[in-house]
């Protein structure tokens, strides 16, 4: 299936959700096992490289680094990358990806101190990198600044005044970002903080109490982190309103994540009411909503303002699992409303694996459908091109033309 292979392995891509690379100085700031797993502690460093996902990543990276035989092991991969010049490693990993444009969420914890700025990544693409603004981080920074200039302690009798000022400043910030051409969308991690059952309304008293609870945590731990439901939901509603009026999509972490989430609250099925409440706002459900992919596919099929990103499962899930997820995405979701991403973060290898494994899985799933005469090859090609490039180009209003000089792999599927 030459035409389908050329599209799957050779069409340029827009990575609609990723995070920055670590700087060269901080290239070893995190355990490299995080490439394949959201686990922490011993579950990450001891157990994660016994997964099928890690075995496959080891094989893929061994090919990239020219490791063969007994050298093709996880430890050998780690030693090889550690011995390489960092700039060379980054180029080696990015060149085969076929990524033309990256949309970077630079609000990930640790970015400010350890990672490169978003524009630094332009050296690997032919179209400029754009920003996704993480709303909870934006809000925390605003409240922290308000507290720094405040001379009196916030009490139950004065919290209403603080909330009013904070809400006003947050609105101004989100509006400014929505009008910024460098910002193409927003992202919420409500899934991590309080779950995806986001309320469509709330009382001032509930939000005020949430602010007081956040300030008490700040006082005790020195860490201003919004994990209080009424406040988080209040912020999300503000962003949905402003983003909708400016035609900027709002991404939501759904499903797959570390043990900071409550898994039962991470299904996008909880979002049905909030989706209905903001019909003019584009919702992007990130990370394939794994393991709730079918829930996300259903929402995408019945609400025109919902899009489904099939990312992060590359390389976190086994090859069979990746194919199963893509099949579940395609069970219901209109193919003009599915998007691809690497969820690349910290290590250039995360972009590499997120790209080559996604392209392979798309080809295998769609070629099976063509063989069974459920699709024509031309229809399959269009699905690939839309998923990798055109759907993201449209909803984020990037105004790009596909750079057909980007050929990440050979048309026969081998990596060139």
UniProtKB/TrEMBL annotation:
Residues 231-373 form the Amidohydrolase-related domain. One of its GO terms (molecular function) is hydrolase activity. It comes from the Eukaryota. This is Amidohydrolase-related domain-containing protein.
């Amino acid at each position: 299936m030459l035409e389908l292979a050329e599209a799957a392995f050779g069409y340029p891509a827009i990575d609609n959700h990723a995070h920055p690379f670590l700087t060269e100085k901080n290239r070893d700031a995190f355990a490299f096992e995080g490439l394949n797993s959201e686990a922490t502690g011993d579950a990450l460093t001891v157990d994660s490289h016994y997964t099928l996902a890690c075995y496959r990543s080891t094989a893929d990276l061994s090919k990239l680094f020219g490791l063969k035989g007994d050298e093709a092991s996880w430890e050998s991969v780690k030693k090889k990358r550690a011995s390489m010049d960092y700039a060379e490693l980054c180029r080696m990993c990015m060149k085969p990806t076929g990524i033309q444009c990256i949309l970077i969420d630079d609000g990930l914890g640790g970015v400010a101190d350890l990672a490169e700025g978003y524009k630094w990544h332009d050296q690997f693409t032919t179209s400029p990198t754009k920003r996704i603004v993480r709303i909870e981080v934006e809000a925390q920074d605003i409240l922290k600044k308000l507290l720094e200039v405040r001379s009196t302690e916030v009490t139950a009798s004065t919290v209403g005044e603080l909330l009013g000022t904070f809400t006003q400043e947050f609105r101004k910030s989100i509006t400014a970002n929505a009008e910024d051409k460098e910002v193409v969308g927003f992202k919420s991690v409500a899934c991590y903080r309080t779950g995806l059952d986001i309320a469509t309304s709330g009382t001032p008293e509930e939000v005020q109490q949430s602010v007081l609870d956040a300030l008490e945590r700040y006082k005790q731990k020195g860490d201003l982190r919004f994990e209080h439901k009424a406040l988080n939901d209040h912020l999300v509603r503000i962003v949905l309103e402003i983003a909708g009026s400016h035609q900027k999509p709002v991404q939501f972490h759904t499903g797959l994540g570390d043990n900071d989430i409550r898994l039962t609250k991470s299904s996008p099925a909880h979002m049905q009411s909030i989706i209905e409440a903001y019909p003019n706002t584009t919702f992007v459900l990130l990370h394939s909503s794994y393991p709730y992919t079918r829930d996300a596919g259903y929402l995408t099929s019945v609400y025109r303002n919902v899009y489904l990103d099939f990312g992060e499962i590359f390389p976190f899930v086994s090859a069979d699992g990746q194919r199963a997820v893509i099949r579940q995405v395609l069970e219901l979701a209109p193919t003009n409303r599915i998007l691809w991403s690497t969820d690349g973060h910290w290590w250039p290898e995360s972009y590499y694996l997120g790209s080559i494994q996604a392209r392979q899985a798309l080809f295998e799933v769609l070629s099976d459908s063509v063989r069974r005469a459920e699709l024509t090859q031309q229809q399959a090609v269009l699905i690939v091109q839309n998923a990798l490039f055109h759907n993201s180009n449209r909803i984020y209003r990037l105004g790009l033309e596909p750079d057909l000089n980007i050929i990440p792999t050979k048309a026969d599927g081998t990596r060139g």
